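Anyone else keep sequences and structure tokens together like this?

Example one:
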Amino acid sequence: MTMTGTATQVSLKNNLYPTGCSPRKADKENRMEKVGSFDVQAFLHSACVVRTTVAYESKDTIFSQGDSCKDVMYIQKGQVKLSVVSTAGKEAVVAMLRPGDFVGEGGLARQSMRLETATAVIPSTLVVIGLNEMVRVLDTERSFSHHFISYIVERNIRLEEDLIDQLFNFSEKRLARTLLLLVRNGQNKNPRRVHPKVSQETLAEIIGTTRSRVNVLMKKFEKSGFISIDGGLRVNDSLLSVVQHK
């Protein structure tokens, strides 16, 4: 597949160990701290990683379901939607990814083809790393490797929670959980604005219901004071009570 975005290639002379980045030196120099955590973005833009930076416009396709898995991407800015289409033509949104997330990492587990389609929801910038380079970096850069493993474990937990949510929870609770995830509950002050604006059609695809059902639930949440819609969708911490209610 040919990328539709604008690419900036960063090439390095030494394919085995980039200039000034022996395994020992790189491991020492790249233990970059940012508020007590590893600064992934600074590391990926250092001289130790062969990468390509690609800019996408809103609604650009980053990769399509069925494309070959040839790289891993890191979302630097913007938002990316992952969706799948069944053989019957039914589409479902499986994830909404934001800055700090990785996408397309299935190739590291010998996945030969993309299982989803990745689409830029708003103008987005992604750092693209070839599979061989990603394997090399994970093998030689301990701090980055630890961060990536933690990310994959946390994402797997979230996927398990999503599955449990779909199997056992009513659409009301699924919608509440989705809205809280979209604002990354607990990371900002209350109330938090959902940005970019997510349509009711997209919310319906995420939670597996109809747009009309989402519309009814959104009105109910607004009436209860869990969300506010004037001037953009804002989510209050009180919405947690819907998720926690048994």
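And example two:
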Amino acid sequence: MPASVRFSTVALLWIGCLLGDQKPAPRVAPYYDAASIVNGADNQSGQFAANTIATIYGTNLAYSTAAISENDISAGLLPIVLGSSETQVFINNYPANLYYVSPGQINFLIPPNVTGTSMAVRVTVDALVGPTISFPLGAAAPGLFQLDASNAVATFADGSVVTPQSPAQPGDVVVLWATGLGATDPNPLYGRVPTEAAPVTATNLAILLDGVPVAPGAIAYAGLAAGFPGLYQINLTLPASTGTNPEIRVQLDGAISIPNVHLPVTSN
């Protein structure tokens, strides 16, 4: 079963944002380009899938700054507008659920019901409309949330964070936090907070440590983190052969997370 992690810890990863400049932006059309729309976990551009947390960087993206709070979730429904801002993000004309808006950054969820081989992204601020930018849409777009520039976010079974100062050891069970792992059973509903664990349906999920896939039996669970839209967790038993601070990557359905991200591990 998925490990339980307190809301305060996971919400920080889930929202994945820092509050920015509070001054209102000029009332001109929002601007962004293809390179500035990225996976919200690792800032990888050009690789997207349904139910992936994503980020848009740009200018004039909102009149004010607001981050999602529990008060913004009503009857299990996620917001499509935050705070006093009139910002909305549309994916193939579906209004995306928002986690954070500011003049320079938006964090949002690619709707889980988006299908097809491409997606069109458009930002509107009140009556002002930004460019429509199209991207390929894949079955998966794995990205690991990062503790810092070098290390993935991982927690021990008790919810404490794996860090260079408190590393894991071979044989430990760790929980990795990711987005973009694709379809699950059951699949999350558009606009709603998932209320139960749901494993990914892909059968080719692989975790690579220093380029070597771990045995499938080492992955006890890979699927939705209940209560956190767009967030997935992977419960992994580290093999006895795990080296010190291995590079860690997630691969499935022809997509792979970025290189040079490590897991803090000390090996004897």
